[in-house]
Design brief:
The protein is mostly helical and 91 residues long. Helix content is 74%, strand content 0%. It has two helices and no strands. It has helices spanning 19-35, 40-89.
Length: 91
């Protein structure tokens, strides 16, 4: 049986999901796969969808991490500027 004879999972809706939606559905997919009992084709489709959901979650988390880093850097710059200003005033 060739690879093209298996159906593929629907993933076009995943890009619009929030982190929480993708995470919750990913947890459901993992539970279904761990429980077993699904036919091979369904299991493969679940695996594909799970991979896409995990990728979506990872991109959300990477984006959040980058934003936090930007905030930290901005705060550090402001703190450094305030420190330099206080040091200049005390001279």
């Amino acid at each position: 049986m060739s690879e093209n004879q298996f159906s593929t999972a629907r993933t076009d809706d995943i890009e619009q999901m929030s982190y929480e939606q993708a995470r919750d559905e990913l947890a459901e997919v993992v539970t279904k796969l761990e429980t077993g009992g699904a036919p091979l084709e369904e299991s493969l489709a679940l695996w594909q969808r799970g991979e896409a959901l995990a990728d979506r979650c990872e991109r959300w988390l990477d984006g959040a991490s980058a934003r936090l880093q930007e905030v930290r850097e901005s705060l550090n710059e402001k703190e450094a500027a305030a420190y330099e200003e206080r040091a200049a005033e005390s001279r």
